[in-house]
Design goal:
There is one protein chain. This protein is an alpha/beta fold. It folds into three domains: 21-194, P-loop containing nucleotide triphosphate hydrolases (Rossmann fold); 220-297; 378-528, no CATH class. It is 48% helix and 15% strand. The chain has helices at residues 21-32, 47-58, 80-92, 95-98, 103-114, 122-135, 154-168, 191-194, 220-234, 240-251, 255-269, 278-281, 284-296, 300-311, 313-324, 336-343, 359-371, 378-385, 398-413, 418-437, 476-493, and strands spanning 37-40, 63-68, 140-145, 178-183, 347-350, 353-356, 391-392, 395-396, 441-446, 454-461, 464-472, 497-503, 512-518, 521-527. The strands form four sheets. Strands 9-10-11-12-14-13 form a six-stranded mixed β-sheet, sandwiched between helices. α15 (313-324) packs across α16 and α18 runs parallel beside α20. The longest helix is centred in the last third of the chain and has 20 residues, at 418-437. The termini are far apart.
Length: 528
């Protein structure tokens, strides 16, 4: 049987995969038009898998030169002669290409590789490549994966400049039909990583690249197709469309998160004590369990993202503002921090606003920020000390949590400055909640309702969901409107009981917890 894969590239013969044919056809359209472009996406976003599939997809129409710069060492980028020899070496080792080369081209590549006659320069390599493109019976497509491994080397920039020159003058000098470079960073911005002088800081050697807008994340339909293949093998009886939508809701189609969730359900959760069969595991509860396990594992993707935060203070502040301060930040691709956050997978453009890329990242980031202060936080210690009273027969008592939080919050922070509380009040509740649900539940912040006035938090605990609206108090009229909005949200989730937590900074405020009934729903309201 095939498996779900989360390491390296996927192979359709041994792995469950989404159907890539539509996006491959779109990419081929760009190649047919002779476009040069960059596929830059965050780590583990399926770039290599896409290139592997594209190589097969193009094989009947083009000669495909598929190189991976991971095979080139640091020494191969020391100077032009070393790079020429390494490039010729890798090209000659591609058996699929040799059959399309004349003996003369093969001999010239062998000569470039050996470096016996002289120290060759990039012009020697490109003259050979141009002659090959001229005599080849089909157009040649050059694909280079992992170009980030070369991005800090001047010789690579010179290589890009040569490609650009041949592209500009391709009516006079035969060259590749298309060039595709794949990596995390946008190659058009590489020069500023290497040279700091003003003259060359923004003078990109790859400004001929076309915009690559083809969607590489998975839609719920894509996920459903993969699950359908799985269901044909195992006959679990799962509701495929529902499972696909739930997986999409938590991952927003980030490829490795989708595969990781499916792999956990198939290999770890199915057969466990709570989910003895695959039919038991491929349920909403099974998906929530998979999400919890992803967030409690040390996975390479999360470690890489956290390393980026630790190295970039501005990026860290940007994400903190989005997560905890309710900042509505316009999406501006020319803002350096926003651009990097998108490159590394943290953010996405959601209708002109910067938003966290998916629910799993959101919870992971919240947990990481909270972990910086959770051991020293008085409110977090209070939640941990009283944890047992909030769990009865395996169920979470959210109403009691709110009552106790109001007491502790007023005792600890009631005399603090208003500005301090406005910026940090909602974070304090998550600090209080985290040790209570730790190990058995998770939470995420609903991006569509997050702003400076209102934030909806959804808590999952042992398969039960709690909808909690946290907001700043802006009068009775605003509060009443919030109650109705919460009722609408409860209808969407088919839940009868919801919770509101208001931070009121009026001098004459009345704190405490009350219960009201509205539109057939029960709403527990807490005010601090």
């Amino acid at each position: 049987m095939r498996k779900f894969n989360i390491t390296a590239a996927c192979n359709p013969d041994i792995h469950y995969m989404v159907d890539l044919r539509a996006r491959l056809s779109d990419i081929k359209g760009m190649i047919d038009d002779g476009q040069y472009f960059v596929i830059n996406r965050a780590r583990q976003y399926g770039k290599t898998t896409t290139l592997n599939a594209l190589e097969r997809f193009l094989s009947s129409d083009y000669i495909v030169v598929y190189l991976d710069f991971q095979f080139l060492s640091h020494e191969d980028f020391q100077d032009a002669s070393s790079f020429v020899a390494a490039f010729a070496r890798e090209l000659r080792q591609l058996r699929s290409c040799r059959s399309y080369m004349s003996s003369e081209i093969q001999d010239r590549l062998k000569m470039l590789r050996s470096r016996q006659e002289k120290e060759y320069v990039l012009a020697d390599l490109f003259e050979c490549l141009s002659d090959w493109c001229d005599e080849a019976e089909r157009g040649i497509v050059l694909m280079v994966d992992e170009v980030d491994s070369a991005s800090n080397n001047q010789v690579f920039l010179d290589f890009l400049a040569q490609l650009r020159g041949y592209y500009i003058h391709r009516d006079k000098r035969p060259t590749f039909q298309s060039v595709i470079l794949a990596g995390v960073h946008d190659i058009r911005n590489l020069r500023q990583k290497i040279r700091s002088d003003t003259e060359h800081k923004h003078n990109s050697p790859w400004n001929i690249a076309s915009r690559f807008d083809i969607e590489m994340s998975f839609s719920s339909k894509d996920i459903a197709g993969m699950l359908r293949d799985y269901e044909e093998d195992y006959h679990t009886g799962m509701h495929i469309a529902e499972m696909a939508q739930l997986i999409y809701d938590y991952t927003s189609g980030y490829p490795v998160l989708v595969s990781n969730m499916c792999k956990l359900i198939d290999e770890k959760i199915a057969g466990s004590e709570c989910y003895p069969t695959r039919s038991d595991a491929w349920t909403k509860d099974g998906i929530l369990e998979a999400e919890k396990r992803i967030l409690t594992d040390r996975i390479p993707l999360f470690e890489s993202m956290i390393n980026k935060l630790e190295d970039d203070e501005k990026l860290c502040k940007l994400l903190f503002s989005l997560l905890f301060e309710g900042q509505n930040i316009p999406y501006n691709p020319y803002d350096a921090s926003i651009h990097l956050a998108v490159v590394y997978g943290f953010l996405k453009n959601q209708e002109g606003t910067a938003a966290i890329a998916n629910r799993i990242f959101e919870t992971m980031l919240c947990d990481w920020f909270l972990s910086q202060e959770i051991t020293e936080s008085d409110i977090s210690k209070a939640g941990a000390l009283e944890k047992n009273q909030f769990i009865q027969s395996g169920r979470l008592d959210m109403e009691l949590i709110l009552k106790k939080f109001v007491e502790h919050f007023n005792d600890l922070y009631g005399d603090r400055a208003e500005r301090f509380l406005e910026e940090d009040g909602r974070r304090f509740f998550l600090l209080y909640l985290r040790p209570i649900i730790n190990g058995a539940g998770n939470y995420y912040i609903e991006a569509q309702t997050r702003d400076q006035r209102r934030t909806d938090v959804i808590v999952d605990y042992h398969g039960e969901q709690f909808i909690l609206e946290m907001k700043l108090w802006h009068g009775e009229e605003y509060n009443t409107r919030g109650e109705r909005q919460l009722c609408e949200y409860l209808d969407y989730y088919h839940i009868q009981k919801g919770y509101m937590l208001s931070f009121n900074f009026n001098k004459n405020k009345q704190t405490g917890v009350k219960t009201i009934r509205l539109e057939g729903k029960v709403i527990v309201e807490a005010v601090v």
